[in-house]
C-alpha cells in the first residue's frame, strides 16, 4: 500500500539515506577485523575509534567509556547483570520502576529469582516517579538504581538530574535506559551524575543490531560475554565496524537536527489534537504534559478496543502501535498503563501510541489524524 503513513518510529525508525551511504562505504572499504594489526585491520580500527569518539562526545563522555553492544537490550542487560554480579558481595538490593522497558524489567525479575531483592517503584498518573520514593527505598545494601530516561510508551521523562543528585551521596550505581531519549534530548552524563547509560542506533535512523553502553570510568561491571579482548576486554566479539560508523553518522545527524525535530514533532501533536477535536471524538492524551519526549504521543480513545482499532488503522494505512513493540501480538494490557492507571482502567484497552520521525510532514500527519478520527467514529457508533 503506497498511501501508508508510518507513525511507529518509537518501535523502530527508517535508516537515513546518509547513514546507508556511510555504512555501505565502510562495508566496502573497512572490511578488516579491527583487532588485526595489519594495514586493513588498522584502517578498520581507525574507523571504529573515530565512531566511538564521536558518540562519546554526544553525551560528554570519554571515548574509553563507550562499550559497543548489539543494541539497547544488550546494553541494559550488561548494565544490570554486570553491576549485580560485580557488586553482589556489597549488597543485593536493586531499585527500578514499574514502567521500565522489558529489557530492564525481565533482567531484574531474573535477578530476583537468583536471590537479589528488587524494589519496583510506582509512578503517578502522568507516568512519573517521585524522587522522594527513591530516597525512601534506598538502603545501605542498594547496589543499583536503574530508571529509564524517557518512557517508550507514553513519553514521560523522569527527573534524572534530581535522581543523579540524590545518588551522589550514595554508593549505588545509577543506570538509565536512554534508548528513546538519545538523539532528541540533550544528555550530559557528567552533569547528570549517570554511571551507566544504554542507547540503540535503530531509534535514531541508524541500523538495527548496534548500540552502546556508557560505563563511567571506575564503575564495577562484570563481563557477560567471554571470548576475545575486544572493547577493552569488556565485551567479546568481533567489532561491527560498518554499523558503528553508521551509528555515529546517525547520532551526528540527530544532534544537528534535534531542535528542529523537537519543534516539528510538537507541531505534529498539535495537528493530531486539532483533527481529533474537530471530529468531536472522545479522547485523552496520556503522559506528562511538560516533561515528555517530543516524538511520543499516547492517546486513549474512549469506547474503542485496541485490537480491532489497530487492525482498522492498519487497513486504512495508518501504522501505529498500542505501546511497546516488544509485546506486539500480545493482548496483555500495557504494563506502563497499568502502573499509571490501575489494573481495571479503561485506558488499558483503548490507548494508541503515535510516534514521529523521518519522512513525516504536516500534511501526512493531518491525513493520519483524519483517518484515525473516522475509524474512532465508526468503532464507537451506537448500534
Can you give a write-up of this model?
- The protein has 383 residues and is an alpha/beta fold.
- The chain has two domains: 5-13 and 257-379, Alpha-Beta Complex (Aspartate Aminotransferase, domain 1); 59-240, 3-Layer(aba) Sandwich (Aspartate Aminotransferase, domain 2).
- The protein has twelve helices and twelve strands.
- It has a seven-stranded mixed β-sheet with strand order 2-8-7-6-5-3-4, sandwiched between helices. Strands 9-10-12 form a three-stranded antiparallel β-sheet.
- α6 (160-167) links the parallel β5 and β6.
- The longest helix has 39 residues, at 241-279.
- The two termini are 31 Å apart.
- The relative contact order is 0.17.
Produce a short descriptive summary.
The two termini are 31 Å apart. The chain has 12 helices and 12 strands.
Topology (elements, then pairings):
Layout (H helix, E strand, L loop, with lengths): L4 E2 L10 H13 L9 H20 L7 E4 L2 H16 L5 E5 L4 H12 L3 E5 L9 H7 L4 E5 L13 H8 L5 E5 L18 E5 L10 E5 L14 H4 L7 H39 L3 E4 L9 E6 L4 H10 L2 E2 L15 H7 L5 H4 E5 L6 H18 L4
Parallel strand pairs: 1-11, 3-4, 3-5, 5-6, 6-7
Antiparallel strand pairs: 2-8, 7-8, 9-10, 10-12
Catalytic activity: (sulfur carrier)-H + L-cysteine = (sulfur carrier)-SH + L-alanine
Cofactor: pyridoxal 5'-phosphate
EC number: 2.8.1.7
Amino acid at each position: 500500500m503506497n498511501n501508508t503513513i508510518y507513525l511507529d518510529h518509537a518501535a523502530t525508525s527508517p535508516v537515513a539515506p546518509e547513514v546507508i551511504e556511510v555504512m555501505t562505504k565502510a562495508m566496502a572499504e573497512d572490511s578488516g577485523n579491527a583487532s588485526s594489526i595489519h594495514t586493513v585491520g588498522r584502517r578498520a580500527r581507525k574507523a571504529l575509534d573515530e565512531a566511538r569518539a564521536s558518540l562519546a562526545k554526544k553525551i560528554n563522555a570519554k571515548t574509553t567509556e563507550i562499550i559497543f553492544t548489539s543494541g539497547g537490550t544488550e546494553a541494559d542487560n550488561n548494565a544490570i547483570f554486570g553491576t549485580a554480579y560485580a557488586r553482589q558481595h556489597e549488597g543485593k538490593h536493586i531499585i527500578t520502576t514499574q514502567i521500565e522497558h522489558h529489557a530492564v524489567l525481565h533482567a531484574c525479575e531474573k535477578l530476583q529469582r537468583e536471590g537479589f531483592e528488587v524494589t519496583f517503584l510506582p509512578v503517578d498518573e502522568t507516568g512519573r516517579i517521585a524522587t522522594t520514593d527513591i530516597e525512601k527505598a534506598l538502603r545501605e545494601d542498594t547496589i543499583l538504581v536503574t530508571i529509564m530516561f524517557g518512557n517508550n510508551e507514553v513519553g514521560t521523562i523522569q527527573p534524572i538530574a534530581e535522581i543523579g543528585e540524590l545518588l551522589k551521596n550514595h554508593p549505588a550505581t545509577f543506570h538509565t535506559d536512554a534508548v528513546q531519549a538519545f538523539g532528541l534530548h540533550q544528555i550530559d552524563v557528567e552533569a547528570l551524575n549517570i554511571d551507566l547509560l544504554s542507547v540503540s542506533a535503530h531509534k535514531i535512523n541508524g541500523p538495527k543490531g548496534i548500540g552502546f553502553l556508557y560505563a563511567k570510568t571506575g564503575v564495577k561491571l562484570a563481563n557477560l560475554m567471554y571470548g576475545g579482548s575486544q572493547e577493552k576486554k569488556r565485551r567479546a566479539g568481533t567489532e561491527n565496524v560498518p554499523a558503528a560508523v553508521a551509528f555515529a553518522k546517525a547520532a551526528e545527524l540527530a544532534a544537528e537536527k534535534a531542535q528542529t525535530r523537537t519543534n516539528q514533532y510538537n507541531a505534529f501533536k498539535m495537528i493530531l489534537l486539532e483533527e481529533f477535536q474537530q471530529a468531536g471524538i472522545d479522547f485523552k492524551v496520556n503522559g506528562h504534559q511538560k516533561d515528555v519526549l517530543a516524538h511520543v504521543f499516547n492517546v486513549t480513545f474512549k469506547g474503542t478496543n485496541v485490537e480491532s482499532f489497530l487492525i482498522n488503522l492498519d487497513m486504512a494505512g495508518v501504522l501505529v502501535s498500542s505501546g511497546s513493540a516488544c509485546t506486539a501480538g500480545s493482548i496483555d494490557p500495557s504494563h506502563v498503563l497499568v502502573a499509571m492507571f490501575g489494573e481495571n482502567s479503561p485506558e488499558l484497552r483503548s490507548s494508541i501510541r503515535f510516534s514521529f520521525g523521518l519522512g513525516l510532514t504536516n500534511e501526512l500527519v493531518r491525513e493520519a489524524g483524519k483517518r484515525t478520527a473516522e475509524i474512532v467514529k465508526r468503532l464507537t457508533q451506537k448500534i
